[in-house]
Design a protein that fits this description.
Layout lengths: L8 H19 L16 H17 L9 H10 L5 H21 L8 H15 L13 H12 L6 E5 L7 E3 L9 E5 L1 H9 L9 E4 L11
Parallel strand pairs: 1-3
Antiparallel strand pairs: 1-2, 3-4
Helix pairs in contact: 1-4, 1-5, 1-6, 2-3, 2-4, 2-5
Length: 222
Amino acid sequence: MSADRDPELPERLLLSERDALVPLLRAAPEADFARPTACPDWDVREILAHCSAALVRIVEGRLEPGVFSDASNAADVAERADWSPAQVVDELERAMTEAGPVIAGLTHGLLDTVALGEWVHAGDVRDAWGLPGAYADASGGDALALLTVAARTRRDTPLVRVTLSDSSAEPFPLGNPREGRPPAALCTDTPTLFRLYADRPLPDPAAYALSGATKEELHIYA
């Protein structure tokens, strides 16, 4: 992790998403928690169970080898198979409140991008429910800042020069330079940017223009 790490960034994102998401969850009818999501193996309740379990592991320091693997995640969700949606939401709210300071205290910063994963899954829930704002960065840019970290550290994603069509910000780089390979170029809106990097379905395949790379190379969770 680079020396310019902001250790408070994950907590800011977790708390802002907690404050936005939990009221939606508490107001939703129980049937909505059984809706399918962009993660084909999980419905809404199972995605939320995964999110809370991952953060509880961090809070409790249960980070044994293999943690956050597909098998580990599946086991965590299975442990909560008999929980009601309300129980899952209760645990998620506590975990989103408590995990940020723990992540900040891990000086290596290797778990910083867990907060981005939580934010993306919140987008999965909104998307499953047809709500506005799925994968839109309403966090003051904190999700985008963590995407920049993830694109640099989670995988060897190529360097991409990004221009956001729904922002007045200057073009910015994502990913890593590769010897002998010029930067790719991507023009898109903010929600589509996150969908591309998180490998989520694209409602409008024409909503982005990418040259110099394939969209599969951008995936940070592959």
